[in-house]
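dude i think i finally got it to work??
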Amino acid sequence: MTNILIVCESTNQRTSTSHILQSGGYDVVEAANTSEGLTCAEQDHPELIVLDARSSDVDSDAFIHTLRATQPTSAVPILMLHEDCAQPMHGTRTNGTSLNGAPDALLCTPIQEQDLLVCVQTMLRMRETQTTLYHQNQRLKAQLELLTIANRSLDLRVLSEQLLDCVLWMVGLSYGGIWLYDRDQIVCLAQRGLNAEQTGGSARRRVQVDSPFAHALQSGKAIYYDMVAAVGESSIPEKPHPLAIIPLMIESEGIGVLQLSTIDGSGPAPEDYHLLDTVLIHIARAINRAHQYEWSERQRYRLELADRKKDEYISIISHELKNPMASIKGYADLVLRRIRKNPDDPNRKGLEIISQQVKRMTGLLEQLIDFSRINMNRLKLNLEQCDIGDITKRVVEDLHATTTQHQLTLTIRDTPLIAPLDEPRITQAISNIIGNAIKYSPADGSITIHIKQHQTDPREALLSISDQGVGIPEAEQDKLFQRFFRASNVEEDVTGTGLGLFITREIVSRHGGRIWFESHEGQGTTFFITLPLVSVIEQPDL
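look at this
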């Protein structure tokens, strides 16, 4: 039954007003003065206050101001009974929000019984409507906040704590927790007001078959228990407390549990649980997304760690193998020089093969070492101002001596083309491209190298290498610079590691340059390399 507080100094008027309200079915609390009225308002929690100000001694402004300034009574509607409505009441509410010293409604003498009851009924209905709207607004606000939180973070622990705080705010509770279910084990991600014995701390523990968590996860339905039944005798409070265990489901799979508990034995209103039901899927998805992200990050870290160890191992082994290879080649070359005067020496051919194969193996080891350095970010450059044309010319001369079946043509324009370069590394990159052109071109094939200042961007030098080789299948062209990749149309007797272009691109990129190609299968390939110049060359006037 609705509780109404009457504050009136006149016993007769207070009794008369009380009788009218009681006849209307209301419970009435009476206060003989404003001081007593403030005490009753705080203790009895009335839903409406009737202030009889027909006595000139009543300080209505101070009384109302005090009520408005006190949190428990600030929203209680106030009906003032006044002697003369013709006398203006400063601050009287007219727009639905009362000023600090003004009542919510005003009735003046003569006060009719029906008028009083209608006014009280209207004010109570307005209060109920306002309260409903306020709670709906708060629920929607909480729902929006929760949806915002659900998409804010991928840190599983931080996200879970923020979601739990928002859920507890939504349902008006202070105790609860969120657990993650993963491979028959459960771990507490966040908790409020629960001790380590209740939550299991941060350790993973196996879910007992007959536990409330297991039942909730298996059935996909919320379970309501006393805290004693749910978390054990060790955490019994002074009296049993209700507890809600709500599974977090994605489709038909349980990924966790939300636990809600209260300390005073009361639970959320049905509409609060209904609102919670509408956001459970968002909570589950957010936690699952963060969990998957955390798992993928752990896997990525493990793979990167394994990759680093592999690269370090390759680097160590390659260095260890280089030393005996150098000794073998040095000894073979020494013997070759000694028997050079005797072309009929039966050991000559074998020694030449040994020298060539050791040189090839050394090149492969160098590629593996560079590959490891790139992956470990240890490929260092020592930049000096160099002429790109001179470097390319020396590379062409060296490679020309290795083949008698291919024609290499070098054209250099706009000399000099000075750039900040690590000369050994750029030499390696250009050698890789021209060497591939020789390797994949047919006998008597022509390889053309052009170097000039870039017409589109004169701050760059442009190097192009064209061959008449097998070309690159269109479906495989986007993979060409990947490590260990070799095109499917390469003949089996053409050896290679699939690292040359990967290393070349890295070298060019670290110089601030670019590398790309144009190719049609069976029609050859043209590679392009740009490198930034130190200064722009002035073109002569035509």
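The chain has a mean pLDDT of 83.
im so relieved honestly
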